[in-house]
TrEMBL record:
GO BP terms, alphabetized: methylation
Annotated protein name in UniProt: Protein arginine N-methyltransferase domain-containing protein
A Pfam entry, by short name: PRMT_C
Keywords: Methyltransferase, S-adenosyl-L-methionine, Transferase
One GO MF term: protein-arginine N-methyltransferase activity
Organism: Glutinoglossum americanum
Transmembrane stretches, start-end: none
Superkingdom to which the source organism belongs: Eukaryota
Length: 337
């Protein structure tokens, strides 16, 4: 993840280009991992302004990743990172190696269980996103931190996330992944074909494979979203760009830092530079034979799994809107992430 330049540079720019926002602030980093983001925040303030007995700036989470270093260099007073993982032991070594131990405090534990040294924070920063935005994400932890610690006029970095969908031609790979089970060394393994269809694939998709215009299906405002909003049903319409076949629908997300002086955005879609999130591919039962100007309408349903809330149950209803009855198709697919 540290090598993911799209992700890391976006956070770096959001912090470095907005030092006036971070200066002298208490910052809570939800997800500090190896401590890179938090170390971005208070460094320049530390060189010029830190005095004995000054207040601390908070950077805390269950996965404190790159945010410690970024927060430290932007002028925040003190950064506290909280992480459940033992990676925090290495993060402490990294902080010490960079001479920041006096200004960055790391706490191991769950965000929901640790006790923070400040009743409120001015800024929450977090890299909470999972595959398909919500799979194994830490959004619920960020929302907990927001409701418990963020000041009434506080800021969240980033504060907006949007999921997009599109249709793709992917016959060769679908045959390799799904059709494989029709004949496995001369045996009928089709009972496993159903299982394969229910497992979304996380992979990079060539932009040339995209057959439809993209459409947004969910936008989250982190200032107002509630945990209950993560179970949703969203209608969608995909406009077909060219005559082709559609074997799957894909999803990706864009992230916005709207609190910045100049808004910053990065995308995980097939049209942009690679990110470790890639795209999520949902193979359809049918092969849709589409023509330019037609539409695919449908409904995307998502909810956290009953047994593990970081897993997802996804249902996609789809219908090809065409005047050609020989190509008409509709269906429903259930997926588990």
């Amino acid at each position: 993840m540290l090598k993911d330049e799209v992700r890391t540079k976006s956070y770096q720019n959001a912090i470095y280009q907005n030092r006036h926002i971070f200066k002298d602030k208490i910052v809570l980093d939800v997800g500090c991992g190896t401590a890179i983001l938090s170390m971005f925040e208070p460094f320049f303030h530390y060189l010029a302004c830190i005095t004995p007995g000054s207040e601390q700036v908070l950077s805390a989470d269950a996965r404190c990743g790159v945010s410690l270093r970024f927060a430290f260099k932007a002028g925040a007073r003190h950064v506290i990172g909280v992480d459940m993982s033992t990676i925090i032991e290495k993060a402490r070594e990294i902080v010490q190696a960079n001479g920041m131990s006096e200004n960055i405090t790391l706490i191991q534990g769950k965000m929901e269980e640790v006790e923070l040294p400040f009743p409120q924070v001015d800024i929450i920063i977090s890299e909470w996103m999972g595959y398909f935005l919500l799979y194994e994400s830490m959004l619920d932890t960020v929302l907990y931190a927001r409701d418990k610690y963020l000041a009434s006029n506080g800021l969240i970095f980033p504060d907006k996330a949007t999921i997009f969908m599109a249709g793709i031609e992917d016959g060769e790979y679908k045959e390799e992944k799904i059709g494989f089970w029709d004949n496995v060394y001369g045996f009928d393994y089709t009972p496993l074909k159903e299982t394969a269809l229910t497992e979304p694939l996380v992979d990079t998709v060539d932009l040339k494979a995209v057959v439809t215009d993209p459409t947004p299906v969910l936008t989250l405002d982190l200032y107002t979203v509630q945990p209950s909003d993560l179970a949703f049903s969203s209608p969608f319409t995909l406009d077909v760009r060219r005559d082709d076949f559609i074997h799957a629908l894909i999803a990706w997300f864009d992230i916005d830092f709207t609190a910045c002086h100049k808004p910053i955005r990065f995308s995980t879609g097939p049209h942009t530079k690679y990110t470790h999130w890639k795209q999520t591919v949902f193979y359809l039962r049918d092969v849709l034979t589409v023509q330019q100007g037609e539409r695919i309408s449908g409904m995307l349903e998502n909810k956290p799994n009953d047994k593990n809330k970081r897993d997802l149950d996804v249902t996609i209803h789809y219908k090809l809107e065409t005047d050609d009855e020989s190509r008409a198709a509709k269906g429903t697919c259930n997926y588990k992430m």
